[in-house]
Amino acid sequence: MAVSTSTTISFARGAPSLDIIDVEGLKAAAARAFDSDPAGATAYGTSIGYPRLRAWIADKHGVEPERVLVTNGSMQADAFLFEHLVRPQDDVIVERPTYDRTLLSLRTRGASIHPVALQDDGIDTAALSRLLGGESGPAVKPKLAHLIPNFQNPAGYTLSETKRRELVSLAATHGFTIFEDDPYVDLRFSGQPLPTMLSLDPEHVIYASSFSKTVCPGIRVGYLVGPPQDIAAIAQLATNTYISPNMVAQAIVYEFCASGAVQRSIETVKAALAERAGALGAALRRELPEAQFIDPEGGYFMWVTLPEGTDVNALFAGAADRGVAFVKGTDFLLEGGQNTLRLAYSGVTVEQIDEGVRRLAGAYRAL
Ligand SMILES: Cc1ncc(COP(=O)(O)O)c(C=O)c1O
């Protein structure tokens, strides 16, 4: 189907298009939730979340339920974790670039943020070791290292197994917690799955994931897995904040998962993402050969580097004039990145991708 010239094509939002959300499956799961457990689904419950979903998540990760806390989306989980662990001036390691909301949240808390370069196989562990060992200035003693291991937001890159092992070993040696922020893990459409850092070292890793990318974002269900003492402390924070998370949403997610609908949903989403990522790569090679990028193995995002000297602000304005939106790379960095951008392919059809990249290339040529 042709894309209307008056329609804005958005590569900006990291969200799925409606056609890959199983609305009928969700309606059926909602009916089952109210039929099978009306008391549990409609009560306040407690801050640890809907017990059946908590047990399902514990089973998925091979841990005891005491290690799991289910929240309203993983953003809520992140906020609780930062509130629990990060005080003003605490050293925190992040990837460079990283998720803009993480940067914002850590800045608001007054953390001392240490960005470490992201390579195409994940964070530069050699640079991190130098930072920890004091080889590149005063030794940094982090409380926390925030890492997005699979199909990173914004870069789309994946942390190699070797680096996962190195990181848990660095965390044990230097006594910091790894925050493994992993909402995209189930959306791998090529290559082999890798072990979570949580599975490599359950005592130094607090893991977060979400049903936003596998069920739908509007359901707002995410979770934390971590050492029981941290989970208990965060559960207390959660009680004080909201008594309990949304039990209706969690009961629906539980039914969706327990019936196997989630697995079918993941297959649908992965097939669409694979097609869209392929179309985006092909369109960029055809229309904008100056663009450098790595084809992702899963997830929502592609990180594009344009030739040095490209002004992403001017490109953004020119693209907006032509009806195409993206997020500037500078939004994911404390400094630099003026020639970079993030393209999300999760919410656009193949036709929109082709037309959107044509418009983007037009804006680039007009700079
Ligand atoms: C790395 C990362 N963490 C957390 C989130 C938030 O997810 P949720 O919808 O579960 O709050 C996102 C969403 O885009 C993300 O990319």
CATH homologous superfamily (4th level) name of the largest domain: Type I PLP-dependent aspartate aminotransferase-like (Major domain)
Q: What is the fold-level CATH name, i.e. the topology of the largest domain?
A: Aspartate Aminotransferase, domain 2
Q: What is the beta-strand fraction?
A: 5-15%
Order of helices and strands: EHHHEHEHEEHEHEHEEHHHEHEEEH
Written overview of the protein:
The radius of gyration is 21 Å and the shape is globular. It contains 13 helices and 13 strands. The mean pLDDT is 97. The protein folds into two domains: 9-16 and 263-365, Aspartate Aminotransferase, domain 1; 23-259, 3-Layer(aba) Sandwich (Aspartate Aminotransferase, domain 2), CATH 3.40.640.10. The chain has helices at residues 23-36, 38-42, 51-61, 73-85, 100-108, 125-133, 161-174, 197-200, 228-242, 247-258, 261-287, 312-321, 350-365; strands at residues 9-10, 68-71, 91-96, 112-119, 122-123, 144-147, 177-181, 205-210, 222-225, 301-305, 324-325, 327-328, 340-344. The two termini are 30 Å apart. The protein has 367 residues and is of the alpha/beta class. The longest helix is centred in the C-terminal third of the chain and has 27 residues, at 261-287. It is 43% helix and 15% strand. It has an eight-stranded mixed beta sheet, sandwiched between helices. The protein binds pyridoxal-5'-phosphate (PLP).
